[in-house]
Design brief:
The structure is a homodimer.
Chain A lengths: L9 E5 L3 E2 L5 E2 L2 E8 L9 E5 L26 E2 L4 E2 L4 E5 L31 H14 L7 E5 L1 H12 L6 E5 L7 H15 L17 H15 L2 H7 L18 H16 L2 H13 L10 H4 L6 E7 L7 H13 L4 E6 L13 H31 L1
Parallel strand pairs in A: 5-8, 5-9, 6-7, 9-10, 10-11, 11-12
Antiparallel strand pairs in A: 1-4, 2-3, 4-8
Amino acid sequence: MKSIGVVTPQSMHFADPLPLQSGASLSDYTLVYETYGTLNADRSNAVLVCHALNASHHVAGTYEGQPKSVGWWDNMVGPGKPLDTGRFFVIGVNNLGSCFGSTGPMHTNPATGKPYGAAFPVVTVEDWVHAQARLADRLSIRKFAAVMGGSLGGMQALAWSVLYPDRVAHCLVIASTPKLSAQNIAFNDVARQAILSDPDFHDGDFYAYGVVPKRGLRVARMVGHITYLSDDDMAEKFGRELRNADYQFGFGIDFEIESYLRYQGDKFSEYFDANTYLLITKALDYFDPARAHGGDLAAALANTQAEFLLVSFATDWRFAPERSREMVQALVKNERRVTYAEIDAPHGHDAFLLDDSRYMNVVHAYYDKVWQQLAGVVVAAQPQKEAA
Amino acid sequence: MKSIGVVTPQSMHFADPLPLQSGASLSDYTLVYETYGTLNADRSNAVLVCHALNASHHVAGTYEGQPKSVGWWDNMVGPGKPLDTGRFFVIGVNNLGSCFGSTGPMHTNPATGKPYGAAFPVVTVEDWVHAQARLADRLSIRKFAAVMGGSLGGMQALAWSVLYPDRVAHCLVIASTPKLSAQNIAFNDVARQAILSDPDFHDGDFYAYGVVPKRGLRVARMVGHITYLSDDDMAEKFGRELRNADYQFGFGIDFEIESYLRYQGDKFSEYFDANTYLLITKALDYFDPARAHGGDLAAALANTQAEFLLVSFATDWRFAPERSREMVQALVKNERRVTYAEIDAPHGHDAFLLDDSRYMNVVHAYYDKVWQQLAGVVVAAQPQKEAA
């Protein structure tokens, strides 16, 4: 299927301080974003796509002269794709604290004239959503036809439906969870400890030393990556396949899975920022909308007005289907309109990024409905206009 | 229930070189071991208990003047306990490469006069079993009433039944697997990479530098520990409980699970040897008796003569019940006598070390049978002697 083609990132500067959940604030900041498709006349066809851990605003298409720079959800977003850019005006925005363009730890702290480093404030999913809402304001988008995300992106979509209930018509929460489990937090903390204890981390101010805590990032990515894949998928892809004919009786590479994971870790440590990794795992750990309601998720979602699509994947052991069902039940308790699909895909958590016709068809069909509602509003509005 | 009380480790030196699976050999070595109970006159009541990753020969009892030095399987082994030291002569032996007494990387390499460090050869489960067999020879134990172990210890018990089929009457394989999965290997490799990339590791020769790669050991233990606990157990014990009243918005400790894991990591890094950790994870990765038989586990177990007890735990996701069932099926295919219990315990892989009356009763009942068979042999032998 056709890609959206060449796309160009844009950026917007915000001079007003952003108050954060921690009590700190960002004095000013820049958000980098991309848009695909055309905003309609009544500005009602905008869809916000929120990104997960190591992704960015670059959701679809490629950059000029860089044919390999394909957006992370290019299979989902484009002409004729489930989120059809022929119908919708799609926005991808990079979150604060990221290392892909929006203001983050690598950028200059106006208070010191040096990179923020460890001084970059801890940001939450809710902080990101508030920053995204300001971007929407500046783009004069009052209400999104849909806010959508997978994993950590799904948390942002859910938070939008809670924080800005009248600005979200549809909320698509894919492979996500209303909060991390103790085990999820444990894995995040292992990753953080690997980074924090890397001597090249220098308490987050490694930029000044001309080094990067690559060893820590590498281990962090390796352990993270294990949780993205299912046990079965790993067994099928790698099993106990050896790199060489026999065991090497050393600590180099024996098994293909070792080669794969080390490669993933090495690659990641080349481009990802260690402070960003810490910040994003904390945003994951802290997300828990039910917390302010004594743990009652239904109470937390009581003021939502959106319609919902939730999708989970059977072999996702990071954010298992049970976690999506909790959200579905809380929404049903509030008598929200909810569609839920549990896809029997073998690819673990990563399935939300991969092609699976059942998954793609569910999302496609859901956006057909979103589109028909939008069109219906327009059609219904015309007689009203004539009557006025 | 009563403990065996004060116990004393012993050691035995072996001057004959031990050929290893890798092709290397250990020129001479010492094994440290403990024994509990009394060897009977026909030397038929000996039970060998094999240890797992971070355990040792200190299976039961305490050391003189150290009331907290309780053996790692003290709930299983002792007077009136499932493995009753009133009936059986129990041997716990520390494996080669360990850091608890038997010859390992911290000991002097006779070839160089310096600590082995990285020069200590990679040893396998099969190598350990051959070393244990030599110890049995020296103790004049021709045939064990039982060889028993949990996790990596279970692999040794299984290997005994294959390598020395006529020397094992009963084989007890608890919470184990006939081989690691790709995911198991992946977790081990994350742990190894954390150690290998710690600047204080110095390619395994850190002893000479007066340092210990504690950062790597700490992360290795943290990630390992996650795999020992079940998701549910972690949720029940820690959930999202906070250390303080609110989020700290930093990278210190927010959640109790972080505190627990970091503590486990810190403690481990104080006493465990980094080279030993590497060696033991490799022994785990390499264990695969079916490998020499084209992956056919039944063929690998065809020459076994023992009777078997296998136990698995429902929430063990490290070595899940499916892995025990593979062994059961392979043994049944060979028409071996197999008892199999799947215990619905909530404690994940760690359950094999914990008290659970169903689990303890199964093992106790099994040893009753072992004892009755022994007694039966003695009783049956008496008329034969009279007839002779």
